[in-house]
Amino acid sequence: MTKYDSHETARMLAIHGSELASFYRRAGAFILDLAFAAGLFALITSLIEPLLLKQGWIHSDQDIVFALNKNWYSIAWIVLYFGLATFIGNGKTPGKWILGIRIVSLTHEKISLWHSLERALGYGYSLLEFFFGFIQFFIYPNRRTLHDRVAETIVIREIRKKEKI
């Protein structure tokens, strides 16, 4: 006989009472991360552009630009940036680290690569319908946006040692 396993319950109890991140901290971290992603994109493309020209993959009259509304590779870059930064930082992208917040999985102790990429793709869902996915922060319990619900995450405030005093 197969029985239901409520393994998420232990995780829910472990994070119960965590202080949720404010909208302003989350928005600030998102803007910082967009700036970091754009800067990193510019650095990497300036380094590989000569190779792309030499291989004939781009022409000298083509520009490689970071524009989320103009090309597919900028969108792919953003998903990779947010997905990998979240996974490598265990819920902290550079912007979130600066502002003292962290993404936490509701089902696992460490956020997985799949959850990280799923959440990064969820940003696109949150942008649809005039940013309504982000506005859901104010509507849903535990301040969960659309991308939080897609990836089963919450964003908490981390108390740094200096703040505990």
Structural class estimated from helices and strands: mainly alpha
| Main sheet record | 2 strands, antiparallel
Percent of residues in helical segments? 55-70%
Proportion of beta-strand residues: 5-15%
- Lateral arrangement of strands in the main beta sheet: 1-2
Q: Report the end-to-end length measured between terminal Cα atoms.
A: 52 Å
Low-confidence stretches: none
Shape: elongated
Q: How many H/I helical runs?
A: 7
* Total beta strand runs: 2
N-to-C series of helices and strands:
HHHHEHHEH
| Gyration radius from CA atoms, angstroms | 19 Å
From the structure provided, what is the oligomeric state, counting identical versus distinct chains? single chain
Brief summary of the model shown:
This protein has helices spanning 8-15, 23-55, 72-88, 94-99, 113-135, 146-151, 161-164; strands spanning 101-105, 153-157. The chain is mainly alpha-helical and 165 residues long. The protein has one domain (19-157).
Walk me through the structure.
With 165 residues, the chain is mostly helical. The protein has one domain. The chain is built from seven helices and two strands. It has helices at 8-15, 23-55, 72-88, 94-99, 113-135, 146-151, 161-164, and strands at 101-105, 153-157. A two-stranded antiparallel sheet has the order 1-2. Helix 2 packs across helix 3 (72-88) and helix 3 (72-88) crosses helix 5. It is elongated. It starts with 7 loop residues before the first helix and ends with a helix.
